[in-house]
Design a protein that fits this description.
About 60% of the residues lie in helices and about 0% in strands. The chain is mainly α. The protein is globular, with a radius of gyration of 11 Å.
Length: about 70
C-alpha cells in the first residue's frame, strides 16, 4: 500500500497543481477516495480542498505564503 500523506511534505507549487487537477477530476465524476489515491494523499486532505473551493472559489485553492 502507498504511503498516505496529508500534503505537508510536498512542495507548495505541486500541491496547488494537485488542487486544480482534483477539481478537473471531480468534474469527471471521480470520487474523493479515488482522487486522493491518485495523488497519494489522505482523503481528508482532498475533501478539505473541495470544502475550501465551495466557500472561497478558485482563489481559495491558490498557493498561499507561509
Amino acid at each position: 500500500m502507498k504511503d498516505i500523506k496529508d500534503g505537508r511534505s510536498i512542495f507548495r507549487e505541486v500541491l496547488e497543481e494537485y488542487r486544480f487537477r482534483a477539481l478537473e477530476l471531480k468534474d469527471k465524476n471521480w470520487k474523493v477516495n479515488k482522487i486522493a489515491e491518485a495523488f497519494g494523499l489522505h482523503r481528508g486532505t482532498v475533501s478539505n480542498w473541495f470544502t475550501t473551493y465551495r466557500r472561497e472559489g478558485k482563489k481559495g485553492l491558490k498557493q498561499k505564503k507561509s
